[in-house]
C-alpha cells in the first residue's frame, strides 16, 4: 500500500541545468510543450527556431530543453519523459524554472477499434494503475483529467477537421502486463485508451497548482483478437502525426493568452 505524504518534500527540484555561458537566472517561457515522440521532437527542432538553453538531468541521461519560437511567440519545449516517474520529474523541474502551464501529447493505445488511427483522443478521466500519482494525490481509483481548456481545444481541432474522441483512459506503468483480463475489465468500464502518464500528469499538476492540457493521437489497437500495432512505430503515418504536432503548437498560442 502506498502511503500518501502531506508534508514538504525532503528533496526539492532545482530547475534545469543550463548550458555553459547561458544566464542561469533566466525564467523559462510560461507555457511548455512536451512531446513523447522523438521523431516529432526532432522534426520541430529542425523546422522551427529553437534555442537550446539547458537540460533536465536524470541519473543516467540528460534531455535538452529549448526555447521555441513559433509565430513570434516563445515557448518552453522539451521531450516528455515516457513513464510516470520521469514525466513527474520533468514537470517538477520545469515548473521550478518558471513554467506555469503544460501541453503534453503523444501516442496511446486504444481499447475501442472504432477510434481511427492517428485521430485525437481527449482524456477526461484516468484510472490509476501506476504508482507515482499516489504520492501526489490521495488514493482513489480515478482522477479527473483536463479540467480546463477542453472547449478551446475542441474548437481548435475542428478547424483542422480532425476526428476526435473524448473519454476515460487507463494509466499503467507495466505495459507488458496489459493482460487480456485487464483489457476486458477496462473496456467494460468504457475506457477508451491506455497509456503510461495521464494520471500522473493530472496528480502532479493539481498538487503543484499549475494548469495543463494533455491529449493523445491514437496508435496501437488492443480491441482485437491479436495486438494490432497500427501506427505505433514512430515513422508510420508520420505526416498525420506532424499535423497533430502543429495543433499542439497552435494550442500553445491560445494557452499563452488564457488565464
Give a short overview.
This protein is an alpha/beta fold.
Describe the protein.
It is a single chain. The protein contains six helices and eleven strands. The mean pLDDT is 95. The chain has helices spanning 38-47, 84-96, 150-159, 180-188, 198-208, 238-257; strands spanning 17-18, 31-35, 49-57, 62-70, 73-79, 101-110, 120-129, 142-144, 164-172, 191-195, 211-221. The longest helix is centred in the C-terminal third of the chain and has 20 residues, at 238-257. It has a single domain (17-257), classed as 3-Layer(aba) Sandwich (Rossmann fold). A five-stranded mixed beta barrel has the order 6-10-9-7-11, surrounded by four helices. The chain is 28% helix and 31% strand. It is of the alpha/beta class and 259 residues long. Helix 1 packs across helix 6 (238-257), helix 2 runs parallel beside helix 5 and helix 3 (150-159) packs across helix 6 (238-257). It starts with 16 loop residues before the first strand and ends with a helix. The radius of gyration is 18 Å and the shape is globular.
Amino acid at each position: 500500500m502506498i502511503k500518501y505524504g502531506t508534508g514538504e518534500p525532503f528533496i526539492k527540484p532545482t530547475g534545469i541545468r543550463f548550458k555553459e555561458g547561458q544566464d542561469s537566472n533566466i525564467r523559462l517561457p510560461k507555457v511548455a510543450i512536451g512531446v513523447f515522440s522523438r521523431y516529432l521532437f526532432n522534426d520541430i527542432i529542425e523546422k522551427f527556431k529553437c534555442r537550446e538553453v539547458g537540460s533536465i538531468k536524470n541519473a543516467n541521461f540528460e534531455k535538452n530543453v529549448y526555447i521555441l519560437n513559433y509565430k513570434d511567440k516563445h515557448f518552453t519545449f522539451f521531450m516528455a519523459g515516457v513513464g510516470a516517474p520521469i514525466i513527474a520529474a520533468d514537470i517538477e523541474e520545469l515548473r521550478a524554472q518558471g513554467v506555469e502551464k503544460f501541453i503534453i501529447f503523444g501516442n496511446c493505445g486504444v481499447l475501442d477499434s472504432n477510434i481511427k488511427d492517428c485521430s485525437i483522443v481527449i482524456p477526461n478521466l484516468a484510472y490509476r494503475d501506476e504508482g507515482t500519482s499516489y504520492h501526489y494525490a490521495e488514493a482513489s481509483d480515478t482522477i479527473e483529467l483536463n479540467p480546463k481548456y477542453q472547449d478551446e481545444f475542441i474548437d481548435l481541432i475542428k478547424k483542422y477537421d480532425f476526428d476526435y474522441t473524448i473519454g476515460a483512459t487507463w494509466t499503467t506503468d507495466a505495459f507488458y502486463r496489459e493482460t487480456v483480463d485487464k483489457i476486458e475489465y477496462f473496456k467494460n468500464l468504457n475506457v477508451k485508451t491506455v497509456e503510461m502518464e495521464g494520471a500522473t500528469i493530472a496528480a502532479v499538476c493539481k498538487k503543484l497548482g499549475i494548469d495543463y492540457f494533455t491529449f493523445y493521437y491514437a496508435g496501437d489497437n488492443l480491441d482485437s483478437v491479436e495486438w494490432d500495432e497500427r501506427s505505433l512505430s514512430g515513422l508510420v503515418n508520420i505526416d498525420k502525426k506532424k499535423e497533430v504536432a502543429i495543433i499542439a503548437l497552435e494550442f500553445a498560442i491560445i494557452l499563452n493568452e488564457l488565464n
